[in-house]
Amino acid sequence: MSKIRQVYMDNNATTRLRPEALEAMMPYMTVHFGNPSSVHHLGRAVRAKISDARDVIAAAIGADPSEVFFTSGGTEADNLAIKGHAWADRKASGSHVITSPIEHPAVLEVCKYLAKNGYELTQVPVDADAMVSPESVREAIKENTTLVSIMHANNEVGTIQPVAEITKIAKEKGITVHTDAVQTFIKTPVNVDDLGVDLLSLSSHKVNGPKGIGVLYIRKGTKMHPLAHGGHHERGLRAGTENVAGIIGFAKSVEVGLAEMEKTGAHVKKLRDELERRILAEIPHTKLNGHPEKRLPGTVNISFKCIEGEALLINMDMSGMAISTGSACSSGSLDPSHVLIAMGIPHEIIHGSLRFSFGHENVMDDVDYAMTHLPRIITNLRNISPLWDPEELRVVSLEEAQSNAKVGH
After folding, report:
1. Which residue, of 209, 227, 259, is where some domain finishes?
2. Backbone phi, psi, residue 71, to 5°
3. Is 113 helix (H, G, I), strand (E, B) or coil?
4. Element (H, E) at 29
5. From the CB of residue 315, how many other CB atoms can be counted at a distance below 10 Å?
């Protein structure tokens, strides 16, 4: 039995804070504690630093600093984007919102909220690779469509969406477009003009920054209504004293991550491809989920037939590996992944799915370590599954499993 070590392969859920970001943050939690809204020198110094951070993040996405608004994270950014625009642009005849069934809960639940409060909602389908067709968006557009919200890349399977094509179609009708770029930022190029979007959400803790801070990009001229009322912070769109240390840490993580993006992307893709190759070659009855090419460089989602995902996750964790069955925001739920359901994958296969997501700190030894333990764990779990024949090493049909159970009784 090999020695247990700690291997983190859940970077789509959260990432470790960069030392450079922590170092940049510390003075603003101790010495430079002024409120950025204060007129005195302590407040002015902090406000200047926030302005510098805004410049860094704006430059990273090709935006003007005045279009960058700090939030408490990706979830608030999504809420502000969708509710804020829907409320500001509500039409007398009612308003229509278009999204997809594979969005993050921070988008899906907001859209469902609007649907319960007088808005029309259309979810355009995805194909077997979790890809939204731009033409399906075109067909879904109505006279009263006010917003299209399609994520830049899916957090569970990594599929990158044709956002630029979707935006072009929406713009023909003058419709506002939002994309959740939480998973793509600092992993692939994210430029608001290349994508053509009006609203774009980012999150710090996905890019080795601190938790509790995010950004909503709002293109000039986009109609918006605030979620919270109070002070004049963030030009009246987000009341509340700014998370100064978080903003500064976010900007530093972006600065460092952007400089290393190409190198890191190639590195994590190499790890992802090797793990994927070995799993599919060494473990029978496995299936890749998501687009084989158009996906995040460090994400791979695999289904293991005749396996219960939670049991697999626990066994991997006991062997020192931190992995996910999908979205961290849904991990407390026993319901099957809404993303894999939308892709048309059967429930019994969905339950045996794992997501591996690599970051810049991962090394090839992590892949080797995973493959030292994973085949054994899969074999052990399959041997106690009624849907597996251990003698013939094959998947048993549900009908056959039920028949065997009756005979066993």
Report:
1. 259
2. -130, -175
3. helix
4. none
5. 18
Please, are residues 126 and 162 in contact by the beta-carbon 8 Å criterion?
A: no
If asked whether residues 94 and 140 sit together in one domain, one would say yes
Burial level of 329, CB count in 10 A (0-12/13-18/19+)? Answer: middle
Encode 338-405 in three state secondary structure.
HHHHHCCCCHHHHCCEEEEECCCCCCHHHHHHHHHHHHHHHHHHHCCCCCEECCCCEECCHHHHHHHH
Contact between residue 32 and residue 42 where contact means Cβ atoms under 8 Å apart? yes
Of 139, 146, 137, the residue nearest 96 (C-alpha): 146
- Domain of 268 in residue numbering reads as 7-15+261-408
Distance between CA atoms of residues 54 and 399, nearest Å: 60
Give residue 106's pLDDT: 97
User: How much helix, strand and coil, in percent to the nearest 5, is found in the chain?
Assistant: 45, 15, 40
Within this chain, do residues 239 and 300 fall inside the same structural domain, yes or no?
A: no
Q: Which residues are catalytic?
A: 329
**pLDDT of the residue at 35:** 81
Q: What is the tally of structural domains in the chain?
A: 2
CA 124 – CA 136 distance, rounded (Å):
6
Q: Is residue 1 part of a domain?
A: no
Residue 12 CA to residue 156 CA, distance in Å, equals 8
Look at residue 338 in the predicted model and tell me its pLDDT.
Answer: 95
Q: Specify if 2 maps to a domain.
A: no
Query: Do strands 353-357 and 299-304 pair parallel, antiparallel, or not at all (unpaired)?
Result: antiparallel
Coil, strand or helix at 261: helix
Coil, strand, or helix at residue 240?
coil
Q: Please report the pLDDT score of residue 409 as a whole number.
A: 43
| pLDDT for the residue numbered 326 | 64
pLDDT at 184: 98
Low-confidence ranges of the chain (pLDDT < 50): 327, 330-331, 409
One-letter amino acid of 196: G
Q: Nearest to residue 373, comparing CAs of 13, 15, 6, 12?
A: 6
